[in-house]
Amino acid sequence: MKRLVKILVVGFVFITYASCQKNEVVTPLDEIILSQQETQGEEILADVDLLVDEAVDLNLSQLKSATVTGGGYLSECATVTVNKTATPKVITIDFGASCTGKDGKIRSGKIIVTSASFNTFPSVRNKTFDNYTVDGKKIQGTIEKTIAIDQVNNIRTAEVKENITINFPGTEGTATRVSTLTRQYQRGAGTTAADNKIVSWGTVAFTRVNGVVVTKTITAATPLVFNVACHHIVSGIVSITTSNKKSWSVNYGNGDCDNLATVTIGDKTKEIKIR
Known about the structure:
alpha+beta
């Protein structure tokens, strides 16, 4: 009898394990982690855009090597070098071994930007990275951005193509982000960059280390709005589907400068923190 019970218990454990293996798909916890990771990726790349824009704005007039003393992102430990004799021209932002920005984030390595012209539009800029990390997350890959300017409404619009790998610290693993986005850079009524916003919509394919592909869709009707003042996405709705047939949405609110979002899975919702 004891032998029979033991066989039944082992059989049950095996069946349960096999069932879990067969149905190893995105769980609600995974959905929350994925939402957090992809939002972090979105905010990191919005920061990269703003870092580059600040470096260009601060150095375009003199086109020479400079140590940053102004602006809202780059602190004095970041060195910007402009090579005006190269074809295309090259701007390098070097954070050294460790550099704390004015936004409180710790960066290291380099962001390298090339363009045939940084001050005529439409303009094409290409970004690459040399051992670049921010708050322990390593960013690799390429970004191509084609920029047009609407001077009447003080808006720059860019078509952006990203092919980026993000190495998250600890056990979170590595993810690849391939996206096609439209980004509008909207200047506020104030005199500082803190009044500005980045508005984005398009599609993102976010591939996890286990091979699950997470496809994110943002419509122009409910775009993501990144507020420069607080360095967070503060509004917008994202629809997410995965290659293993899961789906959910993330709502970033109505404009409040916080790190909160609401994940909706079926008829259930949960508020999450991005960091």
